[in-house]
Amino acid sequence: MLMRLRWILSPIGALVLMAVPHHLAAQTPFESSTGPIPYNGQYSRGQDVVPSYDGWKANPDGTFSMYFGYMNRNFEEQLDIGIGPNNNVDGGDRGQPTHFYSRRHWFVFKVVVPKDWGVDKKVTWTLSIRGKTNTAKGWLQPDWELSNEVMMENVGAGNRDPDNEAPVITGTGPQTISLPDTVTLSAVARDDLLPRPRGQRNSGEPGVEAQGLSVQWIQYRGPGAITFTAPTRAATSTASSRSVTSTTVAAFKVPGIYVVRAVASDSALDSFHDITVTVK
């Protein structure tokens, strides 16, 4: 197997040199299509955000999905960059986030391109903040093709199963409220039993609390901060599937259009459900 050496950021903040299989080298953490993401040590605040191209998948209808993520180089500070000259995909809005949580985030959104998209034609995401402009350029070169196994490898999933599929998530539709009202949001995640929680790998018995399946609520877009209550969780499972229903109450302080994202995770693969909330 071909191997490449790459500098990797360890959990303790040090850069270490690791051997990476050739077919995974393109998706090495903290590396974008423009080269390694600069790392100048650990900072809590004051740094910029670097977009990343994380790879592509072929869709059943012949189109292709290009996946993008980002690295907020702040260890604690969250940042906001509105859609426009400072946050655009090929000059426009292609569903990219405007709220950026700290550190590295993989496969945050995807851009679907047509079936006749050439292998050398690029999609470019540009982010500018604090006097720095960074870009990530996606293309359909074979080295960047993704599979579920590669995606699990990249996010560091410790319990990988080659047959695992991402959860399916549904939830509340668009909402409109007037301040100071809050809004109740719900999402339902359904999943196979893969990967099985450790200790249940060889057991066909259902986990009564749908172990390993979770829903997290985050801010994806919006002109102001969102406050979430601790979500309530109702879980069920059978011998072949599991589901979790999560409900939270979101509060806002600033009028505008927000996108709240519910993230379903089986501890190895994620799925999203986005809810647009218009606050008057």
Descriptive overview:
With 280 residues, the protein is mostly beta strands. The chain has two domains: 3-154, no CATH class; 168-279, Immunoglobulin-like (Sandwich), CATH 2.60.40.10. The chain has one helix and 21 strands. It has one helix at residues 148-154; strands spanning 3-9, 15-21, 31-32, 35-36, 49-58, 64-72, 79-80, 87-89, 99-100, 103-113, 123-129, 132-138, 168-171, 175-177, 183-191, 214-221, 226-228, 232-237, 242-252, 256-265, 270-279. The chain is globular, with a radius of gyration of 19 Å.
Quick check: average pLDDT? 84
Low-pLDDT sequence parts: 1-35, 200-209
Compute the CA-based radius of gyration.
19 Å
Number of distinct helices: 1
Broad structural category? mainly beta
Helical content (DSSP H or I, runs of 4+): under 10%
Rough outline: globular
Q: Between the first and last Cα atoms, what is the distance in angstroms? A: 57 Å
The biggest beta sheet reads: 5 strands, antiparallel
Order of helices and strands: EEEEEEEEEEEEHEEEEEEEEE
Residue fraction in strands: over 45%
Count of β-strands: 21
Number of structural units classed as domains: 2
